[in-house]
Predict the 3D structure of the following.
Amino acid sequence: MKRLDGKLIIATHNAGKLAEMRELLGQYGVAAVSAGELGLPEPEETGTTFLANSQLKAIAAAAGANCAALADDSGLCVEALGGEPGVYSARWAGPTRDFAIARAKVEDELRAIGAKPPFRAHFMCLLTLAFPDGAIESFEGRVDGELVFPPRGSLVFGYDPIFLPENLDKTFGEMTLEEKQAIPPDGSPALSHRARAFQAFARARLRR
């Protein structure tokens, strides 16, 4: 697989994901422009897995911009809900992408089935790097934890305020972006699912 050089597109129209991806890339001195900033259309996420959606977004952006594109598909998987919302995590936020609605829906669903804490859950992230010639490669990251209600933290992005990672006392919503996304220099696992997937991507395609 070729090493990444030159221009890179972040295949997202989501401001929160864009900020996190830029923070991660910035640790390696890589600047990138988003698909939204280029006016590229947002493809419909028709896949039924994180991998499928990640690949279709990366391939579409790479073809549309004629350069390398990096796409993320990620979501919250709740054990008691059979892995939901999973690949439909964004859809639970409704057409306005209001994640306060999504977080409330998760809590409502858990209460409706009589689930009792701890509410075990994990975040999954699949990153796909695609090139205009059709070459692609994907990288996976996962972090386990449990859900807390009411939500905690003012640094609100997605489901972060209700997710408490294992062995920590702060939700993702109580962490700064830099704290959540830091890549340990000793090679130990990063904290977040997106940062863990990025670690695998960086080892393969980037140099500090």
